[in-house]
Amino acid sequence: MNRTHYCGEVTENDQNVCVCGYVKKSRRLGNLIFVDLRDRTGIVQIAFDDKTPEDVFAVAETLRSEYVIEVSGTVRPRQTVNKEIKTGNIEIFATALTVLSKAQTPPFEIVDNSNANDEIRLKYRYLDLRRGVLQQNILMRNKITKVARDYFYDNGFIDIDTPCLMKSTPEGARDYLVPSRVHKGAFYALPQSPQIYKQLLMIAGFDRYVQFAKCFRDEDLRADRQPEFTQIDLEMSFVKEDDILNMAEGLISKLYKEVLDVEIPTPLPRLSYNEAMARFGSDKPDTRFGNEIIDVSQTVSDVDFVVFKSATESGGIVAAVNVKNAAAVYTRKEMDKLTEYAKGIGAKGLAYIRWAADSETPNITFGKFLNDTQSAEILKSVNAEKGDVVLFAAGSKREVLPLLGVLRNVTAKRLGLCDDDKYNFLWITEMPFFEKNDETGKWDAMHHPFTMPLDECIPLLDTNPEKVYAKAFDLVINGVELSSGSIRITNPDLQQKMFRSLGLSEEEIEAKFGFLVEAYKYGAPPHGGMGIGLDRLTMIMCKADSLRDVTAFPKVQNASELMSQCPAEVDKESLEILGIRVVDENG
Prior knowledge:
Elements: E1 16-29, E2 32-39, E3 42-48, H1 54-60, E4 68-77, E5 90-101, H2 118-123, H3 125-128, H4 132-154, E6 158-159, E7 177-179, E8 187-189, H5 195-204, E9 208-216, E10 228-237, H6 241-260, E11 270-272, H7 273-280, E12 293-295, H8 306-313, E13 317-323, H9 332-344, E14 351-354, E15 363-364, H10 372-381, E16 389-395, H11 397-414, E17 425-429, E18 434-436, E19 443-445, E20 472-477, E21 480-487, H12 492-501, H13 506-519, E22 527-533, H14 534-541, H15 572-578
Helix pairs in contact: 4-6, 4-14, 7-11, 12-13
């Protein structure tokens, strides 16, 4: 190999060059042959004409798409400039050509806007990854990783690997289990996060830890979730919450400046969990647009509409979202569709006001229950004007706020209010410590059980779990949760109290967390940390639609990988060595 340049980096200042890559396409025009040669940096045109050595021209005539070749030649101006590529003003006149590898006709055309379905592209993922758009995403991920590593190294962090075979401990999702050959009947778990190990590293005295850690969670997949993912995991000793948030803000600011040349103003805004839910109906609100939730409970308190009345009398709320200038898009027919959508996500119905721009009076679906004064007060309370659509929901806060939060996002997307060129970061702080499990009636930890409650909430652990808030925080961008973190419990007595609050017996505590509880008895510095989703961050920075577009070899909806066809069955001998027998579900 004598490569001197990458395809996309050849310029008019170069003379004699040697490039290697894949044939994107070959065009024959009489005694001229033009080949577009592609590598990970871009495309350059190779030219063959009547001045090309005969043996070289003969080989050029055989070239087909995806052949791997090496070409030497001289750089010259291109007759027809192509402004779509970096090298569009030059071409390489070939003087030597070697076919390094021939290729069959690929199962789909390797172009950025491929119309091949996802299944065929994922089956031949190594071909799909040749597409320029995916290559640029993977290269951007590489740059993000490098900038992030440099940032943490410059700030005194120590990169430490933690085990991928660990003890199964509850962290909010199902574990992937790995059977042990030596200890038959016992299992390792793949880490949902390095949480316990990084806390032990703080106890060990490594006061600033970072790891680009592989994490595994056996959860149902979606566009922004894969069963295995990479987390920028960090932990810091002798810090308060602000220290961790400031460190993360410095990372975000540096990444966006160096990778995208975008300034992210800091400090980032902060909202408490309760304020975020009250205003946006979500703990990961998209703040690129307004249309905030309005509590109209007091305004409608005397309205004789059973839906509103039953909600307020039972201690619930009536709230609304004014979708400004939406009436033209949300016709009456579209409002029927929106109502059905609302029912599909748990609403019993959808009361609304639709005020057409050419109408002097609004259409209020519950208008027959209102007098003129009540109508005017409601319109004023929600700032309704001509062209607006106002959506109402009634019930408990737990029902109403998330419902309106979803409708707020759905309508904003339909109206094109989500500007992809805006990056609205914010912190959500003071997260609830517990959440009620509707099936068991018990209070489960909303975060992992090592999260520190707010000081003033510690006395409420046994008596009022619903009023306990945590020193926990999430980083959100454009409606996507990017990171979660917290200050950790370091007091062994408080940690034991927390375990008991979660309903764990002394035996369960010892079995699941005994080694960590023991470690805290030997002196633990105050510490805290967070995990930032590298995959999601890359997806957002690349403006990709799915994690598949920024992950080299992703899984599909059922957690399988189509290319290698895993997971797959293994032979009986391998199972016998592990002491495992597969039972047929059908008996």
